[in-house]
Amino acid sequence: MRKSAWVTIFTVCLTAGQTVGFPEQTENPTTEASFFDDAFAEIDSEQYEGRANFRDVPANLTGAHLYRVQLKNNEHKRVFLDLIKTEQIDVWMQSRGKKAKAVFMVLAANVEKVNMRFYEADITLKRLSDNVQKLVDEENPSENVTKLSNSKTGYALTWKAYHKASVIHDFLDNYATNYKDLCTVEKIGNTVEGRPIKIIKISSGGDKKRPAFFIDGGIHAREWISPATVTYIIRELVENRTAYSFADEVDFYIVPLMNVDGYEHSRTRDRLWRKNRAPGALCKGVDLNRNFGYKWGGKGSSSSVCRGNHRGPSAFSEPESQAIRDFILKFDIGTFKAYLTVHSFGQYIMYPWGYDYMTPPDGTELQRVGDLAAAAVKKLTNTSYKVGSSAKLLYAAAGGSDDWAKAVAEIPYAYTLELRDKGDYGFILPAKFIKPTGLETMAMVQVVAEEMLKAERLKKN
Ligand SMILES: *[C@@H]1O[C@H](CO)[C@@H](O)[C@H](O)[C@H]1NC(C)=O
Ligand SMILES: *[C@@H]1O[C@H](CO)[C@@H](O)[C@H](O)[C@H]1NC(C)=O
Ligand SMILES: *[C@@H]1O[C@H](CO)[C@@H](O)[C@H](O)[C@H]1NC(C)=O
Ligand SMILES: *[C@@H]1O[C@H](CO)[C@@H](O)[C@H](O)[C@H]1NC(C)=O
């Protein structure tokens, strides 16, 4: 266990109405929650989500601190937003509502200044790490763990470590060879840097078409638990197939690693890289989860190339998002009944809309199935997941893949999962958590698949 310490901060009074550039709020209690929306809407389009300036120089994480904070009133929120705007803190996770919580990183050079600012504002921080580099160094066991398992399974992939992209792809190819009747692997496109994007179809149906279920992982490079968990799901559906009665009634299409370039960059150069590796004179990369073509360009997506949430020059400008779009649209509308896109972190099961604070007409059904999935996880591993629409739980973010899946591809059960944890490690989740996270995510897949099949049977009767 790492040491974590409550950094206790004593009261200093601040007068109201200081000039940090946000509109004054009335005391109407309903505006408390909406303050964050309005204030973030203002900077959303600018720099929210992740490292503000995504230039190609990796941050020095030695001595960088990780904190959790709860923002209890508008004054707290103003201070926090000001620190984001001035690029003194790097937000890793942010939830909305009255008890707005955030996890953020502060580089060593800014630690003193930032602590002073929170101190002055009477905001208590919980320190989760005093050296993010140490988390990175201890996250992943050495490659020899991989080599040991190789002889047993025939593939190098394990769920004891995070692996490079080629190991993930070799695992898919191994299944295509060794489970010929069940698995088909296809290249659905190439990344910006020319790496293949691979999909595996897992189906015992032969040519017969059954309700189809699409899963993708690794849209965001630094969220390593995502591809690790998605390969765990693939393994369960193949090697532990008899444990799941729904498996023979569903065609699964799974892309474990969408942003292959970004992932490799995060492994070899910059652990906190998020976007793809689209070229740019000043800054590289497009946020693929702001690049999908439904309400593209709206809230929570930036036109600035250096931002972590840069949406790209146009909808589907990137080969990675194009590959997903083109693959799904090759099928008749109505083929896919469920869509899961797997992210980290925060422990959320979210459904559309992400582009604004609204839910689709079948929002209650999406909530119901999400609640069932969360209950299944709670029972299995005692991990708590919150369920709700993306914009309402976290923040508005237009151009997300789930909104596109729901609105354009017309996939009824469309969810974004934010896997473990709640910020103790954040993106740098140690490899020992891959198995329990895989186990509980498989339980979510099971619930969504079973409920989707039930709905199909009802329609037929
Ligand atoms: C990173 O920062 C630490 C502490 O601030 C310093 O000792 C180290 O030299 C820096 N590393 C690089 C590569 O700049
Ligand atoms: C793997 O290598 C590390 C050193 O890098 C060593 O401590 C450990 O015992 C090795 N594990 C196995 C299973 O060989
Ligand atoms: C197979 O699935 C069952 C049911 O989810 C689970 O309890 C079991 O641990 C799995 N077995 C393996 C080898 O993963
Ligand atoms: C389950 O988690 C809750 C917190 O979410 C905790 O209070 C409780 O003790 C846990 N139960 C077990 C059996 O670990």
TrEMBL record:
Residues 161-452 form the Peptidase M14 domain. The active site is at E418 (proton donor/acceptor). It is found in: Secreted. InterPro entries: CARBOXYPEPT_ZN_1, M14A-like_propep, M14A_act_pep, Peptidase_M14. Keywords: Carboxypeptidase, Disulfide bond, Hydrolase, Metal-binding, Metalloprotease, Protease, Secreted, Signal, Zinc. PANTHER family: FI01817P-RELATED, PROTEASE FAMILY M14 CARBOXYPEPTIDASE A,B. One of its GO terms (cellular component) is extracellular space. Its main location: secreted. It comes from Cloeon dipterum. Involved in the digestion of the blood meal. Its cofactor is Zn(2+). The keyword Electron transport does not apply. This is Peptidase M14 domain-containing protein. Belongs to the peptidase M14 family. GO terms for biological process: proteolysis. One of its GO terms (molecular function) is metallocarboxypeptidase activity. Residues 1-21 form the signal peptide.
